[in-house]
Structures are given as structure tokens and as C-alpha cells.
Amino acid sequence: MKEKYLLPAMAVGVFVGVAWGWVGGEAALSTAWIGDLFLDLLRVLVLPLIFCSMVDAVAGLYRMGSFNRIVGLTFSWYLATTVIAVTTGLVVVSIFEPGVGVSLGSSSAPSVQTTSVQNIVGSLFTDNLFEAAVSFKVLPVMLFALAFGLALSSAGERAEPVRNFFGASTAALLRMVHWLMFVAPLGIAALLAAHLGKAGGGAAFFAEVAAIGKYCFCVVLGLGIHGFIVLPVLLKLLTGRSPLRYAYNLGEALLTAFSTASSSATLALTMDLSKKRNSVRSDTASFVLPLGATVNMDGTALYEAVAVMFIAQASGIDVSFGGQVLIVVTATLASVGAAGIPQAGLVTMVLVLEAVGLPADGISAILAVDWLLDRFRTTVNVWGDAVGAGVVDAHSEPALHSPV
User: Fold this and answer.
1) Number of Cβ within a 10 Å radius of residue 165
2) H-helix or E-strand containing 282?
3) What is the distance, to the nearest Å, from the Cα of residue 396 to the centroid of all Cα atoms in its chain?
4) 10 Å Cβ neighbour count for 15?
5) Range 45-64 burial, b when 16+ CB lie within 10 A, else e
6) Distances in Å between the alpha carbon of 244 and those of 230, 233, 251, 352?
7) 278: DSSP letter
8) 28: closest CA among 186, 184, 207, 191?
9) What is the dihedral of CA 204, 254, 339, 393, to 10 degrees?
10) Cβ–Cβ contacts within 10 Å for residue 271, how many?
């Protein structure tokens, strides 16, 4: 398959997967192993790519003297866009009030592990790097890679062969991602079909969505405003680039994000396309994107704000302005602690619920449709990371860039 046919083939995969899952119901589960295999092959590349690309990028940026500037720009972007996303979610849910008149029922809370600020801070560190890698704990691996890259830079010319090794390893891993993408249409179709089949087919899932349709509408509307209006406007204003062209160049990554519901699994493809098609410098993309896939989740933060307010409205609890400000703060913090894996937002949502004194068992009301909404918010997460890489790249050394 030629590369120019890959995006249309993946779009067909989405259509076929939805159609097969909708009509086939539980029979679609027979192909679930294909999707699981595709997702496993993507994930196995994530940690090696994060480690190698981060070491190479940090060493290069530090040596060029642009490390501090890029770090400042990156975290400023993350903070600003996450706060905008949460605020957008709060405005939408306050206008439409999807929880009014909805009964949460007496369902028990789903089995999710609670989290806290201490847990999130503690997740940055580990006493065994290999154990963290085996457990897919991305943050401590990334922090060690950052420190190791800085150490390589300070070691001078003696460390140049090591940096070249990590640079070559990054290129090799991205080549492996390129090979894997040629089976992506099949994997995407199997993943989507399996999830719809698990829900009982299209008719059964449609009934679940209809029960809390106004809530689903608010989540998708908020994500749409952030993804189709806020981020493109910022990209155009801050870089002069065409948002449509920029998004089209990332088409395969965005479809992969939707099908896998994992920003981490999509990371390698996002990096490859950002460098090759959107002309983001390798060092910038290799620093901004792995970090963003772990700590910058606009879609997740927006979703948590809408979900928490929905639970409050359904519970008949009035959240004051101060409480909504607290939601902005805690949802922003919780999105940092949400690993780039499917439905991780459910775990960190407990932190936001506890912060404003809402019942955690309210999560049960939205659990049935979360797998679908997870795909929309993950796509926005990946899109926000990619736009951030373009913005940071354009302002790190403006003289080197021209709009595309």
C-alpha cells in the first residue's frame, strides 16, 4: 500500500469497524484479538521511543542553548490550553444543564483506584526504573530520560557517540511505526467493532447513549469547540500556519487516536507526521510530544469538568462559583495524572469529585458510554499536543521557520 492511500484506508477501517460492530453485535468480538494485537504492537514502541527521543532532544536543545526557552513555552502552552478547555466545558455544561432531571440510580460505584495529589507527585519518581517500565509508568521513565539527556550535554564531546546512538535509535523506532501503519486499517476496524460488540451492538449502545444523550452532547460539543475553534485559532494566530493543512497532515495520527483511545499508543505516529509533514524540528517534536502525551490532556480535563458538573446536577447539588474554580484547578491537575491509556480519566475524576464534595458513585451513570467519549477526548488530546509542538517550534527560534 502506498503512503498516499493510507489515510483513506484508515477512514474505511473506521467505517467498516463501526458497521461490523453495529450489525454484528457480540459476533464482532471474534475479531477483537486483531485489534488487541495492533494496540500491543503500538504500545511496545512507546517507552523505547519516549526514552530515546527525550534523551536525544534534551541533549540537543541544551547544547544549542534553547532548552530553557522551549521548556517555558511548552509548559505555558500546556497550562493555558488546559485551563481554556476546562473553562469551555464548564460553560457548556452550565448552559445546557444535562444532569437536571436525570436519576443516577442506585448502581454501585465502578471499581476504580482513587488518586490524590500525593499520588500524582509520587508517580514522578521510582526506585527501580526497570520496574517502572514493566508497569508502564511513563512519568518516571520520562523524568530519568530528561535528566540523562542533560547529563549527556554536560559531559561534552565524550558523550557525542552516546547521543548519536539515541538519535539513530529514535529514527529506527519511527521507521518501525511506519511499517506498522500499513496494517493499521485492519487493526482500527477490529478495535472499533469489538467495543461496539461488547456493548451489545448498535441498537443496544444507542439505547445507552439516549439515556444520557444530553450529557454526551455536552461533552462532544465542548470537545468540538476546543478542537475545531480554540486550537485552530491559536495555531493560526501564533504560527501563521493553515489549521486545515496542519490537521490533514496529522490525519493518520488522529484516526489512530480515535480508534485506540490512547495518546501514548499514538505518540510514535504523531511524532513521525509532525516532523515529516508539518516541518516541526526533530528536537522540538521529540521533547514536546512525549511530554504532552503524558501530562497535557485538554480533552480529558474538559471531559472531567463536564462529567463532574453533570453528576452534581443529577445529584441536586449546586456548585458555587468558588467550587467551579476549584474544578478548574483540580481538573487541570488531574489531567496531568491521567496516563495516556484508555479510560484513565475515570480514575483521576475521583480526585475532582472529592475536591468539591460529590459522590464518587455518580461515575456509574456515565460508565456505559465512556468508551466512546474516551475516543473523542483522546483525539483532542493528541491534536492539542501536535498544535502545541507547532506553536513551541515557531517561537523557539522564529528566524528558522516559515508558515506551512
Assistant:
1) 13
2) helix 282-295
3) 24
4) 13
5) bbbbbbbbbbbbbbbbbbbe
6) 13, 11, 10, 34
7) S
8) 191
9) -160
10) 29
Task: Using the structure block, give the residue that is written with the C-alpha cell 521533547.
Answer: 287
AA identity, residue 50 = I
Cell numbers 493543512 correspond to 245
Give the CA-trace dihedral at 322, 324, 326, 327, to 10 degrees: 170
125 is written with which cell numbers?
Answer: 519518581
Query: In a structure prediction context, what are the per-residue pLDDT tens digits for the chain, which is 404 residues long?
Result: 566 778 889 899 889 988 988 888 888 888 889 988 988 888 888 889 888 988 888 888 877 777 888 999 999 999 999 999 999 999 999 999 998 887 765 444 444 444 455 555 666 677 888 888 887 777 788 888 888 988 888 887 888 899 889 989 988 988 888 888 888 899 989 988 888 888 777 777 777 777 788 999 999 999 999 999 999 999 999 999 999 999 999 999 999 999 988 888 899 899 999 999 999 999 999 999 998 887 788 998 899 889 889 988 988 888 888 888 888 877 776 666 555 455 555 666 777 787 777 777 778 778 878 888 989 999 999 999 999 999 999 998 643 444 44
Dihedral in degrees, nearest 10, Cα atoms 220, 221, 223, 228: 120
Written as nine digits, the cell of 238 is 501564533
User: To which H or E segment does residue 218 belong?
Assistant: helix 213-225
The identity of residue 256, as a single letter, is T
Q: How far, in Å, CA of 381 to CA of 47, rounded?
A: 19
| Backbone dihedral region for residue 201 (phi beyond 0: left; psi -120 to 50: alpha; all else: beta) | left
For residue 84, the one-letter residue type is I
Domains of the chain: 3-400 (1.10.3860.10)
- In whole angstroms, give the CA distance from residue 233 to residue 169: 36
